[in-house]
Design a protein that fits this description.
Length: about 240
């Protein structure tokens, strides 16, 4: 008998996700049919379909018309439909996040950064350069520009273990609302290749993001350069 409750499909989704993350369902393999899954988990077709849909939304699987559902090659997935820190991304995928802190400086912003952060001429920013890692392997090179007046003295609290999101939300009590994200593909420069330990001209994904507070004030602007072979960006977009 199928258990009652509107959220049974979440329990089944979590079991499916564990099958993938634990290698029971291997990369590139085809999932059992809906009927087989119904019998295995003793639930309805509707529950299986909802669970598979969420699995697809989260970037774990993809469907091929007339063939079935398959496990994606496991890359770190950056979900574009929610604002999530690098630390949260990696922990959610069972990886250990860390950073190599390259520099933290107080600067007068360029015109470009000033425009993104809507700053006045006399306002300063903190510039934080880091190499973000998962299980001690480089994942991306990141430059974050933080509005100084919103996070005074934040440079005193940043080290290789720091989650900036925790500082924003827990120390400065700021309420992050949303982010505008821009993506483009590039070839890796010589300096970036050294930072990320990848061959010259390797593909990278450049992400620019401005994050706003509830009152629509920009808090920070970040440029992240992700190793193309280690990342997939995805979004579930309804038709409106």
């Amino acid at each position: 008998m199928e258990k009652k409750g509107n959220f049974l499909y979440i329990q089944i989704f979590n079991q499916f996700k564990e099958n993938i993350e634990n290698g029971i369902w291997e990369e590139g393999s085809q999932l059992p049919t809906e009927y087989e899954l119904m019998k295995t988990y003793n639930v309805s077709r509707d529950t299986i379909r909802k669970s598979l849909h969420k699995l697809s939304q989260e970037g774990y699987v993809y469907r091929q018309a007339g063939k079935g559902t398959f496990v994606r090659n496991i890359k770190s997935r950056y979900k574009l439909t929610s604002l999530e820190s690098f630390t949260e991304q990696m922990k959610n995928r069972g990886l250990v996040p860390s950073s190599e802190l390259l520099s933290v400086t107080v600067e007068t912003p360029s015109k470009r950064i000033k425009k993104y952060l809507e700053l006045k001429d006399e306002e300063k920013i903190y510039k934080v350069e880091r190499i973000r890692k998962a299980d001690n392997e480089p994942m991306c090179y990141e430059i974050t520009y933080i509005t100084e007046k919103l996070c005074p003295d934040i440079d005193k609290f940043i080290d290789k273990e720091t989650s900036l999101y925790r500082l924003y939300e827990e120390f400065y009590k700021l309420k992050l609302d949303y982010g505008d994200i821009f993506l483009e593909a590039e070839n890796c420069t010589e300096n970036l290749c050294k930072y990320l330990n990848i061959p010259k001209d390797s593909p990278i994904l450049k992400m620019k993001c401005v994050v706003y507070l509830e009152n629509k004030t920009p808090l920070y602007f970040v440029e992240s350069f992700y190793i193309g072979e280690k990342y997939v960006f995805f979004a579930s977009m309804p038709r409106i």
